[in-house]
Amino acid sequence: MQLELIRNATLKVTYGGHILLIDPYFAPRHSLPSFTGRSPNPMTELPRSIDDILEGVELVIVSHLHTDHFDAVAKERLPKSLPILCQPGDEVKIREAGFADVTPLSQSTVWQGMTITPRQGSHGVGPVVEKMGPVIGFTLEADGEPTVYWAGDTVLYPPVVETIRQISPEIIITHSCGARWDGDLIVMDDKQTLEVSRLAPQATVVATHMEALDHATVTRQDLRQAADAGGLAASRLLIPADGDTFHLGR
Fold first, then answer.
1. pTM, 2 dp
2. DSSP secondary structure of 105-159
3. Is 19 a member of any domain?
4. For 103-122, what is each residue's pLDDT tens digit?
5. N or C: which end of the chain has fewer CB within 10 A?
6. Structural domain of residue 89, as residue ranges?
7. Which positions fall inside the Metallo-beta-lactamase domain (predicted)?
8. What is the CATH number of the domain that holds 198?
């Protein structure tokens, strides 16, 4: 498989011979409001043009409708004929945006020879979850490809641990910026990301969703320093910059 981090959670993935786009967030730098008063969002530009990013894309996966995962620019620029998989409940709003082929990912779905399975996520713990709303992660499986677990906008909590133990993924993609809402952690931070690596010694962890939003509390350097201090090899924890591409396989 080939994985390219575009920015934030947005990934372009070549898997099973097909190209997927995950959680498209195309807004220009500083075009959206701040979450904390520190900076307008997003804090960085896209690493390349939207036309280049969209080239070859055959399927879009939208994990939830927060603006940093599916924004107005993406709704405008994505071809309306592209198939979209989304979490159950979001399909109506996506169709209202003009998209014709929208399928809620309520169970394992086979698309072009790959199996895409929804996985539980929790956008924090406690009362903040009601503010954040529901989210999903998913797994990818296909002949000749590594099993991939895209955890999504979730903290490390029992269903995530159970997914790792159940499927023994070879690639785990985490959102590791330690974002907080009203002081509550709403995605993984450095400590939880390192715990994922300990839970899955067979896996390569790819830490994303960093240095793009002003409510993040963990930088790429913070995470690398924590990994080094914990004795985690750089080959087991990849921390891509925007625009970086990795070839990952068995």
1. 0.97
2. --S-EEETTEEEEEEE--SSSTTHHHHH---EEEEEE-TTS--EEEEES--S-HH
3. yes
4. 999 999 999 999 999 999 99
5. C
6. 2-241
7. 20-210
8. 3.60.15.10
